[in-house]
Amino acid sequence: MPRANSTQPGLSRWDERYAGEEYVFGTEPNGFLATVAPRLERGRALCIADGEGRNSVYLAELGFRVTAMDASAVGMQKASRLALERNVPLTTVVADLRDYSFGRERWDLIVSIFCHLPPELRRDVYRRAVDGLRRDGAIVVEAYTPRQLEYGTGGPSSEDLLVRLDDLRVDLEGLRLRTARETVRPVIEGRGHTGEAAVVQVVGFKQSSS
Ligand SMILES: C[S@@+](CC[C@H](N)C(=O)[O-])C[C@H]1O[C@@H](n2cnc3c(N)ncnc32)[C@H](O)[C@@H]1O
Questions:
Q1: N or C terminus: which one in the chain shows less Cβ crowding within 10 Å?
Q2: Domain CATH code at residue 94
Q3: What's the pLDDT score for residue 10?
Q4: What pLDDT sits at residue 184?
Q5: Exposure string over 10-48, b if 16+ CB within 10 A, otherwise e
Q6: Any domain includes 174
Q7: Residue 3 within any structural domain of the chain
Q8: Are 54 and 23 in contact (CB under 8 A)?
Q9: Which protein residue's CA is at the shortest distance from atom 10 of ligand 1?
Q10: Pocket test for ligand 1, best of 98, 115, 123, 139 (most atoms within 8 A of CB)
Q11: Would the CA dihedral through 165, 72, 31, 125 be positive or negative?
Q12: Residue whose CA is at the smallest distance from ligand 1 atom 1
């Protein structure tokens, strides 16, 4: 069952980071998601670890039926407020990805933006996410790679939490990857993401046999 109060070390620091009025990563969507989402078929979307909800609210504005989830109750409250301000429906769930149930073949789109997890958990989460996708459903991922440690413009400082394309190819095995690249781009998204950054970007689709 999803837990409202996580025991994963460091998670409560997100509540502290989100405690102010300001949206730490801004209220506009992630740049990569904004280039991809308009071309995807509308349906049920899940934004995992969506913090203060900027990506979820954006997808709702595009016409998706969106659920935002994050371990931070403070973040999810701000997501609800943003949805209200933008006059779009949004379901929020406060839960830890360690035991969040994606369901089976439930989602047309799953979005993971700057969701940095310990490797074992990351693999397990993406495996469950693939199970949770409907046939022809899509997953969109952007995350910082280990090269981001040289840029220092956002993201975790522990290499263990950073993600390589090769990792994602394994994690998302069975999906057809339409976009799969490591690149450097300016990520200027709120106070938390402040310049040139080394990222991995993936768009994958579930095929009939996945
Ligand atoms: C860098 S923020 C990204 C927020 C959002 N995706 C965005 O792009 O604005 C990382 C988020 O991951 C969430 N998170 C980290 N570990 C988690 C876990 N095990 N379960 C649920 N959320 C988690 C944190 O609460 C935080 O909101």
A1: N
A2: 3.40.50.150
A3: 58
A4: 97
A5: eebebeebbeeeebbbbbebbbbbeebbeebeeebbbbb
A6: yes
A7: no
A8: yes
A9: 115
A10: 115
A11: positive
A12: 114
Quote the CA–CA distance of 183 and 11 in Å, as a whole number. 28
CA distance 37 to 67: 15
Taking the centre of ligand 1 as the mean of its atom positions, its distance from the CA of residue 29, in whole angstroms, is 14
Non-local CB neighbours of 55 within 8 Å, separated by 6+ positions: 29, 30, 33, 47, 68, 111, 113
* 202 domain-assigned: yes
In a domain, residue 5? The reply is: no
State how far Cα 123 lies from the chain centre. Answer: 14
pLDDT tier, 2 (very low <50, low <70, confident <90, very high otherwise): very low
Contacts of 195 (CB under 8 A, 6+ apart): 151, 153, 154, 186, 187, 188
Residues in the chain: 210
- Which residues form ligand 1's pocket by a CB distance below 6 Å? 8, 11, 14, 25, 30, 49-51, 54-55, 70-72, 75, 96-98, 113-115, 117
Collapsing DSSP states into helix, strand and coil, what is residue 17? Answer: helix
pLDDT in tens, 111-155: 999 999 999 999 999 999 999 999 999 999 999 999 999 998 989
How many angstroms does the Cα of residue 70 sit away from the middle of ligand 1?
6
Looking at the structure of the chain, the number of domains it has is 1
pTM given for the model? 0.94
202 lies in which domain range?
A: 12-206
Tokens of 61: 């504005």
